[in-house]
Design a protein that fits this description.
- The structure is a single chain.
- By secondary structure, the protein is of the alpha/beta class.
- It folds into 2 domains: about 300 residues, tm_1862 like domain (pyruvate-formate lyase- activating enzyme), CATH 3.80.30.20; about 80 residues, Arc Repressor Mutant, subunit A, CATH 1.10.10.920.
- It is built from 16 helices and 19 strands.
- The chain has a 9-stranded mixed β-sheet, sandwiched between helices. The chain has a 3-stranded antiparallel β-sheet with strand order 14-15-16. Strands 17-19-18 form a 3-stranded antiparallel β-sheet.
- α3 packs parallel to α4, α4 runs parallel beside α5 and α8 runs parallel beside α9.
- The longest helix has 19 residues.
Length: about 450
Amino acid sequence: MPLITPELLTRFDVPGPRYTSYPTADRFGDAFHESDLLAALAQRRAERAEQPLSLYVHIPFCEALCYYCACNKIITRHHEKAQPYLQLLAREVELCVQHLGAGQQVSQLHFGGGSPTFLSDEELRSLMATLRRHFSFAPQGEYSIEIDPRTVDEGRLKALSDMGFNRISFGVQDFDPEVQKAVHRVQPAESVFALMAAARRLGFTSINVDLIYGLPKQTPESFARTLAQMRELRPERIALYAYAHLPERFKPQRRINAEELPGAANKVGMLAAALQSFEDAGYDYIGMDHFALPDDPLAIAKRQGKLHRNFQGYSTQPDCDLVGLGVSAISKVGAVYSQNAKTLEEYQAPLDAGHLPVVRGLTASADDLLRRAVIMAIMCQGRVRFADIEAAHGISFASYFAAELERLRAMQGDGLVQVLPDAIQVTDMGWFFVRGVAMVFDTYVQSARARFSKIL
């Protein structure tokens, strides 16, 4: 495992985007209108209707507040609020399909939140039926849902399987009881182990577990115990995120005692320990957040150079169009990004008037699309072949990116990248700082760093 020195940490642990998109969502503007999205949907219908589509559905409701959370959510125990929301979702689907065309094939579906399992089984069945009426679901598609372990049992897992979900993601974050209390998310490890066993009996093809390092009261010793439990649990995929403490942006985080947060050295120590632990357990390091067992499709895609990245993180799906449904959901259709309204009231008003609830977005320029290709190659393959970029975008890489290559040569001296005559290669050390490598090609990030979390 490469050694990260304190000096290297100090220089490169700076704020930066996660690059689930480029340009990043902070660049979206309110000069973008519904008509821009409608034009993109119509263009897809005319030019790419045969290409598979990805769907994301945002369910914002949670019964309890997790203090670390930066998601768009509505905290409520009133489950009757779900039904009006499902009616709005159905209306949004109908409006989208009017412009997109009915029956387009979906190869990837993801329910996120919030807590999608806030919905009852009957409500989830109704929502899936709505989607199936308007879209054609590929037999071998990836259909996933995020699960709060506190809201399900084996019976609910079977219901999800019967609905067509074949992948699930458990939000664990940490198994240590004191850490769980500090972030207001208490869930005994025994219940997660029992649910995992049930999910395997039911035949889910891939199970993901989310972990977070850098939480209050976490120590390298306590996190080592969580890592040992993860090795025993052995999910097909693990998503490991760094906690970003931004209480000025995310109100729930104000309930966290900043004095209880681990320092930078302990955070990077926990990251290094996790990387070593999962490597020893036989996981492939997919990149930045993700680990997968070697026979999981995500690991296979990484080995084959077919990995992609979207708003849900790393993906096996080609760079397909994404339609986001629900409050705050983001769509990517061709060169267009759009985002829905973030509150229920702002989401409902345009739908009641027969319009899509778009409030902001962006149409990527030719330079944006070029840089997106480079950044995604760095984030997904850790390698940029100049000839591939030149052929796709009609530029001379060395001339167009002369300044960027100079900056990378400085990183080469630190052992993060290799600048070759025909390519850029991220090193094993560089994977720790892959966001920092990608940032070299981001024309917007210098003026917006304060909006992002640190890269470690």
